[in-house]
Structures are given as structure tokens and as C-alpha cells.
Amino acid sequence: MRENRTMKRKIQRHPWKQNQLQRTMDNDKYIISKPKSKNNSTLKYLVESFTLNSVDRVIERNHKGRRPDPLFAKNLCRQVISLSQSSVTSGRKVRNIDLTLLDQHFANYVKIVNLILERIYKTPKRAQALGKKLSEYHGHGYTLLRKESDLSYQHNDEFKELVFERTHRNALEQAARTVLSDYTRRELIRSAIGILSDSVIVMLKLLKNKYIPRPLIKQVRATCLAVKNNSKGYAYTVGVLKQVRRELDLTILRELGEKTRWRGRQRAKVRKALSTTSREKLVILSLLEKTVKEWLTNGYPFSVPKLTTTTEDFTASTENSPTQGYWYSVDREKPNEILFFLKTPPGVNGRQQDSSPYRTQTIAFRFFNWFPRAVEKAQRKAEQAALKGDAHRARRQLFRARIFQDMNTQLRTTIALQRATHILSRLKRRRSRNEKEIRKLKAEVHDLRGSRRCAPPRLLVRGQKVTLQVPFLPPNEELLNEVFGDQTYDTLAGADRGIRVPIALSVLNEGQYEDRLVSFDHLVDKRERLRKQAYALKSQIDRKRNNWEKKWTGSLPTVVLRKQRHLDALWRKIRRLDREIARQVASETVWWCEQHNVRTLYFEDLRSYQAPGGRGDLSWALGTNLWGMILDTVRYMREALGHRYGGIWSVNPYHTNKRCHVCGEMGIRVESESSTTEKKGGEYFYCSHCQTRMHADLNAARNIIHVQSRSSAVPGRTNAACPRLSNLQ
Prior knowledge:
Blueprint: E1 21-22, E2 30-32, E3 43-51, H1 72-82, H2 96-120, H3 124-136, H4 142-145, H5 157-160, H6 165-198, H7 200-208, H8 214-223, H9 233-256, H10 263-275, H11 279-298, E4 311-313, E5 326-330, E6 337-343, E7 362-368, H12 371-387, H13 391-429, H14 435-450, E8 458-462, E9 465-472, H15 477-484, E10 491-496, E11 503-509, E12 512-518, H16 521-551, H17 558-595, E13 598-604, H18 618-623, H19 627-640, E14 648-651, E15 668-670, E16 684-687, E17 692-695, H20 696-705
Parallel strand pairs: 10-13, 13-14
Antiparallel strand pairs: 1-2, 2-3, 3-9, 4-8, 5-6, 6-7, 8-9, 10-11, 11-12, 15-16, 16-17
């Protein structure tokens, strides 16, 4: 059974890694929440993204490899000529008319959410009371807000003129999340102000330090009841303290008569002003005390939250009827393409669609269901790997095929459930009812509801691209046992963040080490080239913008706007490369751990790490290897494979890169494996006591395994949020 895949004792994780929107294997999105399934994993949903296209767009292109078919454009032109002028095939992903209607739909949705927020925040006491209720309420927030008379749909004609009742429910859920988040931040700010007003020393530490002091974070979080049981409390607290520090910095700069420039320079000027012992420092301290006391008496200058993003979440909807506002339909001519219909609210004149169940007009899109193609490709690779005798790769591809096949089943089940429920509701409304057919449909609906199905989707608009994110249930015990069987995990592994490679791995199995350096140099080099191009282009844009603004007023010239679009495209490409590098590095890490039956994977905790003096390029090198993104993706993939909480710990990296893993003595960094001359930042490690020579990152990875272990020769400790390793052995 899968119990052997996880640790017997519950692991206490870092709070900053819980309940966050994280990344998937393929589309960089997933959701973590409390376990509600029989699976040992804490994953609630796997979210896959689909690009929406115009209904009359040709999506599927038959070609070999990654290059497009050269005959596609000619065939498309012939198809366009053969069709009538009223049904010309579109060459765009989303037509302008589709975007126009979608913008009108989102405008109504954003307007009603902001209208709800405006009514809630009309009186501060009401916002405070509703926020407290939502923090103590277990369930969907819209069920609590719709009890308010001025927020309900039935008693407000203004809501009925903008949206349908189902869309109003989604808007209430969006507003409830916003109110809850804002209430949490306000309570944290009040706690922070109370602590700062009691101690000037704490206030000076907050303003002088480069990073937020960790004791202050814990103190603010402990005194705030709003985040007592909230796993996001650490991240919320850090954000709140940064916000308060920014307001205090601006107060100091206004007193000094300085301009509000780049944030880094602001912080440097504030630290310099507080480091002196002159009379000016006393004036600043008195001003800060006066400001904090004023906040404590009159309240912090909070702002009313507003919805500005073009995102619609259907999580307040259900999957049982077309009244939820969206509808799936399989294209009869193209079985791998699915039509997506969005019910238009009042004031938005959509088109009447034959495949849509709505009597009103709708906005129609189509998207390509790539799951069957991915399943076929993975199965073919699994068979090829099995023929070559590579059992590990065959199992890896088999898991990929099975999980995509399961997602495809969930999507098809949802479509069938929508259709069956709609037909059943129509049959019940008829005067001459066919009881036999109704009973048959009821049994079908009951079976479909009992089977696994995907959750309500999320619709996003980014520029000219419309994306549909569909959450799917994670793999269950049966699927995992089918692929992996009864496998026991009893080894430990350590991971070190390297400068020359993204991650260095070492596994300890029966006293023997096995090491690996995970690197994708071709992608990293391409990313660095694009970053240099982006920085050079940014300098050109800044010079041209400054020269233009000194001489003229109004809009920028075309040459600057063109370069700005080029810069935006470069950064989008860099972000895509970031996700791809993180996905590939994490995939190699996770499957290497699976190959060696790794029970627990240890990472170094570098949240408060600062590069030593004299190494100006170290911070840049560490910041370009996407450590946080890789760590999140590794945790997701291990959870998707059935490991509870990912089986990941983070430990204190103190001296793990300076001590020898064999004898525990201090060593030096050298340039090459045969060298004995010390060089700062050298690639290899040399121990003069036991003559150990090896890659420095691999030596650190081996030390990370033994941190806090009684049998270790390396002194150290785990992070305060983690229990002792020796207690579990």
C-alpha cells in the first residue's frame, strides 16, 4: 500500500510554504490545501491551462516535429476561398469581436465586485465585523455575505441589471476573499503598530536592518489573533512590516527634504540618517514616535480595496446545471476540440450558438484538448524505454500517461454530467413525462456525480490572450499503486543550491553516497543572453524617454513605444524560460529521488542568507538560479507522487559548505580538483586533514543530510520550525 511511501510521523513544515498557489509539472499552477481525500498527498487540485481560441479558428495542425507544416498556410487559404464570405475562417487565436464582448462581460463583473466592496466598506465597523465573521466562518464566503440585505440578489435591482444570479454569487465569493485578506492585513498592521509604539529599539531595528528581523515577525504574528490558525501568516506579516516600514521611510525623507526616488536609495538614505549620533537623529526619532502614536490613536490610513484584474473565478458555481454561467461541449467534427460557452450578462449582446444550451446569447470559444495526444506520446516513450531496459524511464513515462489519462476522464465526465443534468431538467418540465427515461437519466447523473470530476474553472485575460484554468483532482491510491506498486522509501537525500549548477544532489543509502549535479546549461545560457538584451534595451528606452520628456509633453513617440513592446516581449520570454528551467530541474530531482527510494529530501533554508562582503557577484549568481521556483515545483511533484507534504525539510545551512563530510574538519575552496591553494568561491572542496577532494556543492549536499543528526560529524541544527531528525530515526 501507499503508506510505505510516506513517513510515519507527521512533519511540521514551514508556514510560508502552505496553502499557496504553486506550480505544476507542465503549466506552472497548482493549489495546496488541507488534505480532504484518501490520498496521503496534501494536494487539493492540479490546475491545467488551456488557451481559448475563436470558434471558427483552425487549431489542430498536422505536422512532424516542432516546425509548422509549410502546406498549412496554402491549405488554409484554399479553405477560406471555398467557404462563403459570412463564415471565413479566422487566423487569430481570439477575434476582436470575442475580446470586445469578453471585455464587456468582465467590466460588468468587476463593476459589481467593486460595488459590493464599496457597500461593505461604507462604514469601517461593518467591514471589521464582516472580516471577523469570515475569519471564523468555515465554508464559502458568499453564503455569509448574501445574508446581508443590501448585498443579496433578490432585493437589489441594480445587481439584476448588471449580472445573472450565478455571476452575482461568484462576485460575492470574490468580494468575501478580498474582505478576509484585507481584514487579516489590517489586524497585523494594528499589532505591528502596537509593538513599535512600545519600543524605540525595535523600531530602529526595523528601519536599520536590510531584511525584516525574524523575531519581530514572530512577535507580530503571535500577538495577532487573525492569523493564529492561518498558514499564510508568515508571508502576510512580512508584507505588512514592509508596508509599515515604507510609510516610516517616507516620513523620514519628507522631514529631511529628500525626493522619493528608487526604493533602494530610499532605504540607504534612511539607514544613513539613523546611523549618525547628531541632533538630526533625535528629531527623526521624535517624529517617528509621534507618527506611530498618531496611528495608534487615530488609526492607520487604510485604503478601500478594489478589484482591477480581469479574472473571473467560478468556484462559487456548481457542475450540475447550465445555470452556472459556463458550458462545455465537444465538437462533433473534431473530437479533441472542446467548445466553451460563457453566458453573457445583461447589456452584453453576444451571439446565439447552436451548441449552447442558453436561450440568451453567449460568447463562444474553443480549446484543444491535448490530453489524449500527451497520453499517446507518453505511452510510446514508455514502450521504447522498456525495450531498451530502462525501467526507471519507463515508469516515469507510464505515470505521465496515466495522470493525463485520468485528467482527460475527469474532463469528459464533467461534460457528460453537464449534458445529462440539462436533459434531465428539460424532461422534468414537460407535461407528458416519460418516467422510464427520467429514471434512466437519474441513474446516469448519480453515477457521474459519484465519479471523479474536475472543479469549476477560472477565466483569465492577459492582453490578447484568454486562458482557461481547469482544476483536476490529484492521482489517487489506485493510480499510484498501479504505476509504482508496493515500494518502500527508506533513504535520505540532501540538496544544495549551487552557483554553477541549479542544484546538487546526494543520497545516503546503507552508508554509501550517490551524487548528481542537475544542470541545463543551454537553457540557462539562453536566459542570460535574453536578460542582457533586456537590460541594454531598458537603458536605451530610459535615455530616449528622458530626452523626450525634457523637450515635449504628451504621449511618447512611436520609436519608444515600439522598443517598450520589444522589452515586454523579452521579459515574457524570460519568464517562460524561468518556468521551463524550474520544471526541468525539479523533474530531474524528483525522479532521481524516486529512483533511489528517497523518503526525505533536505534543502538548505536560505530565506535570511546574505552574501558575504567582497563577493558582489554572489547575490546575482544565487538570484539567477530560480531557487524558490525550483523548491516549490519539487514539492508539488513529490506531493503528486503521493509523498505527504512532499517529504521535504529545510535545515540550517551553517558551515555545510565549509566542513568536510568525512571528518568534520574545516576545509578550503580550491579552483580545481587537484589544487591545494585556497580560492574564494572555488568550484572544488579540499580537506587537508583527511585529503578529501570533491565538488564543493556535492560536499555541502552530503553535509545537509546529517544536519542535527547525532551521528554527524558536522555541528548544526535544523530550522526552529522542524523537529529533530534523530527523533524520527
